Amino acid sequence: MTSDAATRPRLFVSNVVRQRPGAPAFHHLVTLLSSHLVQVASRDWEVTWAFAQDEGVRATLARARAADAVVLMGGEDISPDLYGVSTGYPGESPHHRGGDLAQIELVRDAVRRSTPLLGICRGLQVLNVALGGTLVPDLTVPGHRSDTLLQDLRFARHEVVVDPARRLAPALVGGEVHSAHHQGVDRLGESLLLTAAAPDGTVEAVEHTSAPVYGVQWHPEDPASDPRSLGALLDHLRSATRERIAA
């Protein structure tokens, strides 16, 4: 790991798949969000950006272990059999099972090695499933997605209620968040704590009880959102990285 204080920390950004030939509008959205996060993070980090479905478990773990911190980005639904649900639910997207398995192992490895990790949207859901939690396959509560998102790139917006006692709380900038998800946490995974929730009770942020592993359900990397939100979360990862190096 990084030892020279003058050396920028290394951030590994993991998307699920590199190309989506049958879904150009969705691919454009995912690429826009990931590109913006990489652009912002590159001010303070050396960033590696890779794709779990294309690289598989071994290469994904090797890249993550070469980094100081990890971000899991958004994307398609996780394969439902990985958390005990059948296919055929409303709004079901294509699945990339190889990418799911690679990112699940990445989360477990991060917990074992105390590697700082942030999951965003699908990334939070991967984190939850990796630790034995389950998901609601299709949320029925309104307000968490926009039916016109792929046309106008305008996310659903709502408030979150943050538990001030949680370690992640100082990094969660107040005000509304930008969301785009039709799934959510059902049963929390082992050693995960609820950090923030929407007014309707939907889980919006989680954190591990001991490892520096966190997840948010919204999209702080949306270019139209408050830039302080993404900056604060990346700063939180940097602080966790410095603490790990110093230990």
Describe how the helices and strands are arranged.
Layout (H helix, E strand, L loop, with lengths): L9 E6 L8 H18 L4 E6 H14 L3 E4 L24 H17 L3 E4 L1 H9 L4 E2 L12 H4 L3 E3 L2 E2 L14 E3 L4 E2 L6 E6 L5 E6 L4 E4 L10 H20 L1
Parallel strand pairs: 1-2, 1-3, 3-4, 4-12
Antiparallel strand pairs: 5-9, 6-8, 7-10, 10-11, 11-12
Helix pairs in contact: 2-3, 3-4
Report on the structure:
- By secondary structure, the chain is of the alpha/beta class.
- The protein has one domain: Rossmann fold, CATH 3.40.50.
- The chain has an eight-stranded mixed β-sheet with strand order 2-1-3-4-12-11-10-7, with helices on both faces. Strands 5-9 form a two-stranded antiparallel sheet.
- Helix 2 runs parallel beside helix 3 and helix 3 packs across helix 4.
- The protein starts with 9 loop residues before the first strand and ends with a helix.
Structural features:
247 residues; alpha/beta; Rossmann fold; two-stranded antiparallel sheet; 12 strands; 33% helix
